[in-house]
Amino acid sequence: MVATHYRVIYGDTDQMGVVYYGNYLRYFEAGRNEYLRAKGARYRDVERELRIRLPVVEATVRYRHPARYDDLLRIETEITEVRKASLRFAYRIVREEGEKLLAEGETVHACVDLEGRPVKLPERLVELLGP
After folding, report:
1. Where in the sequence numbering do the catalytic residues fall?
2. In whole angstroms, what is the distance from residue 71 CA to residue 60 CA?
């Protein structure tokens, strides 16, 4: 599990100071990027060097409690499944103050070549993402 910290900015919220529901997917993306960085790779380097893309093909979010303007969030990210041509990330978003679980979810990513055709996950990527 890799933890990423993020402070909610005013632009993430509605007039009531509550985070807009779609922004949780952005937070997941931030967690995913930092997960790769913690494993020794940057997302764009993986795409360029391995000549693949990892588009999201499925996303779920379960909202437990609202995040609000100026909350410090901890985005916990891990890979829960690696298949032949896809992988699954799981996320938990926790408000640091009080350790309150705000949301959890998953994204599934297909592995495709530069033309968008499904391909097997490169062995180098599987090794990089391993435990």
Report:
1. 14
2. 22
